[in-house]
Protein: Isoaspartyl peptidase/L-asparaginase
Amino acid sequence: MKPVIVVHGGAGRIFKEREQGSRDGVVRAALRGYGILKQGGSALDAVEEAVRSMEDDPHFNAGCGSVLNEKGEVEMDAIIMDGKNLDSGAVSAVKCIANPIKLARLVMEKTKHMLLTDHGAHLFAQAMGIPETPGEKLITERSRERWKKNLEADSNPEEFQKDLGTVGAVAIDSEGNVACATSTGGLSNKLVGRVGDTACIGSGGYADNHSGATSTTGHGESIMKVVLARLILYHMEQGMSPEMAADTALDYMKARVGGLGGVIVVNNSGEWAARFSTKQMSWATVKDDQLHYGIYAGERHTKSVDEALASGSGGF
Structure:
């Protein structure tokens, strides 16, 4: 099996001045994940590395750069799933952790549980020796400005929710195993303790070697209502291609509950798709040593991996 990785940096609206940073960020993440796959590494390691790369990038609403809740704090959700045995680990409403995806993986591998939240997740992180990152270090000037603006009497938080920025990755490795990972700071000015789709298995992501893997982004409550990730894999199990399965599920979510979003998909044959019903979604993929990436519908740039690395787009 030839390895494939696909990543997204969130569906919604990407402001003009942030487009290049979003493109660079997803390209860097895809190349890092592909570097692991190229050396014979697992899909699980590849998606974790790709997402960690984007959590460290303030252009995205995950890790450093996460949006703030109503109290002006960062609360993050993340999930990771192994398609080989359907094992999954997730964390929700976590604070003061630079890389929630790393903690989600530890939940999967070091506990009998699948999801830890808030204080319990914090205690588990301490037990696992994960260093605490002061909350202030995760807050960017942009997130703080947006939070303040949403507090104004005449503000419309819905307008800012379109710029969502959740991050995710899916991959298939040379053994034919698939995996997914998704991480987010959630919705700006959300209620304290709000958990969206990201931490929910079948909504924020799903991976099964029998069909493939997907990671979702968009309006979390809508995604949960239709269990979007699992719905896409169901359509693939009925014989649809990744692209058709993604479009069918996104169309259903829009028609049924009025929700917009985006998805990345890889099936167990290595076919992939990056589809969205929002205005934009930053995405990148590497297959057969070819990098593809874009932000707008119909936009697709292609470079060889060597060319991308030579231009300083991040790397192995």
